[in-house]
Design a protein that fits this description.
about 15% strand; Aspartate Aminotransferase, domain 1; alpha/beta; about 450 residues; 4-stranded antiparallel β-sheet
């Protein structure tokens, strides 16, 4: 029977490959007709066959494929612990939730504590702060980098400040040495939202390796995808245990290995008590948690995606550099996308951001967006812009540490276009020519 099963599996793999190759026989790119996506997943039959194999194995909870993916991610980023989740948004929720654990004692985050963040953000970088009764303290970002200047952190510090949480915007690294020095001097937690930045480097290290926690997203728009999914990474053993507990319903048991062994991986599954009553450790709860796990089927895509990641990063950098070079002729009217100088920034770019310097009757963000979309070139705003103007955030409890002029301008005048590996030279030139055509008329 084993030999018969092996033969059937091989036949399925061959059919999956044939199916994928047939599916990819798309027509030639037709300018103005073919949609130029702002982002998208990059995969082939290898990912599909991993998914099929995981399905045929019949175990859909996290298993060996998930552990292999977590190991690859940990090694790539340069951290000790990686924990898969069902989304990047869940990863942010998990990182904040874990820091509220009573097991951290006086170091835990409590309702009313302040968290320094930025106003130009994605909702689920901010939401966990609000959802845990914490108070966001907003700083502005710089135009061009769309990141926080570390030297501004002092403006936001207060007696209740306990943490800093921010994203590496569009894959562009912050000055992490300065931020971590500031945090260490004041005993603050740092959460890096690294969802847009897998593979970015600064100060000779990968982003995501600096903070107490960092988070990742594997939504199809990001550097790699497993359909949906995310991760929380850390170098702190206690924080790793807490994140796992909060991800797994708040469960006290955290050991890994042969989870299906009758006595557990540690051999002590039934050696614990609840209020004096002998109890199964897998059903003891030390935190008020969630279920934020992905499936083994999702995770199966991860290892082949990790193998391709270096080429994906290289393509994103090359595509970003091409657009930057092509648009420099408009630098007097457009603010182009750039990195902070002097920190060794090597972004794994998520997109290319453009800001109109001085809007006029002929040159507005709205006008450029409509022009490009009419040419079938996808655009996006820079996430929420100044999120305090968004309907959901009216009247939230917060503190604004400085005038948010740049975040307001981003809300009005910034858009982004794609640089993902699915854009070849013909499509990139079409994007650049489209912007040039609009600018010639503006």
């Amino acid at each position: 029977m084993e030999e018969k099963e092996k033969q059937i599996r091989e036949k399925i793999k061959t059919l999956v490959k044939e199916f994928w190759q047939a599916k990819q026989s798309a027509g030639k790119f037709v300018p103005g007709k073919t949609r130029v996506q702002y982002s998208g997943s990059m995969m082939d039959e290898r990912e599909l066959n991993e998914v099929v194999e995981a399905t045929l194995n019949g175990w859909f909870g996290l298993g060996p494929k998930a552990r292999a993916f977590e190991t690859k991610l940990s090694e790539f980023i340069g951290v000790n612990s990686c924990l898969l989740t069902n989304s990047g948004s869940s990863s942010n929720l998990l990182a904040v939730a874990a820091l509220t654990s009573p097991q951290l004692g006086e170091k835990r985050l409590k309702p009313g504590d302040e968290v320094i963040t930025v106003a130009c953000t994605f909702p689920t970088t901010l939401n966990p702060i609000l959802q845990h009764g914490l108070v966001p303290v907003f700083l502005d970002v710089e135009l061009g980098t769309y990141n926080l200047l570390a030297e501004k952190l002092g403006k936001a510090i207060g007696g209740k400040t306990k943490a800093i949480m921010f994203a590496h915007t569009l894959g562009n690294p912050h000055d992490m040495n300065e931020i971590m020095d500031f945090a260490k001097e004041r005993g603050l937690y740092v959460i890096e939202d690294n969802c847009d930045a897998l593979g970015s480097e600064v100060h000779g290290k990968k982003t995501g390796s600096f903070g107490h926690y960092s988070t990742l997203s594997f939504y199809p728009a990001h550097q790699i995808t497993i359909g949906e999914g995310g991760a929380v990474v850390t170098n702190d053993r206690q924080l790793a245990k807490l994140a796992e507990s909060f991800r797994n319903w708040g469960r006290a048991c955290w050991c890994t290995g042969d989870e299906r062994s009758p006595l557990g991986a540690c051999g002590m599954r039934f050696a614990f008590k609840v209020d004096g009553v002998p109890y199964d450790h897998k059903y003891m709860y030390s935190n008020i948690g969630y279920n934020l796990k992905p499936t083994e089927i999702n995770a199966a895509m991860g290892v082949p995606q990790m193998e391709k990641l270096p080429k994906f990063i290289e393509a994103r950098r090359k595509n970003h550099a091409f657009l930057h070079s092509e648009l420099q002729k408009f630098e007097d009217r457009l603010i182009l996308h750039e990195t902070f100088e002097g920190i060794g920034a090597k972004p794994s770019w998520f997109a290319y951001a453009i800001t109109v310097r001085e809007p006029s009757a002929g040159l507005t963000r709205d006008g450029l967006v409509k022009f490009l979309e009419a040419k079938n070139i996808e655009t996006r705003p820079l996430f929420a812009g100044n999120i305090l103007h968004q309907p959901a955030y009216q009247g939230i409890k917060c503190r604004v540490a400085e005038k948010l002029a740049n975040s307001d301008k981003i809300l009005r005048d910034t858009l982004m276009v794609g640089v993902y590996p699915g854009l070849d030279q013909e499509k990139l030139s079409y994007i650049a020519d489209g912007i040039g055509e609009f600018m010639a008329k503006a």
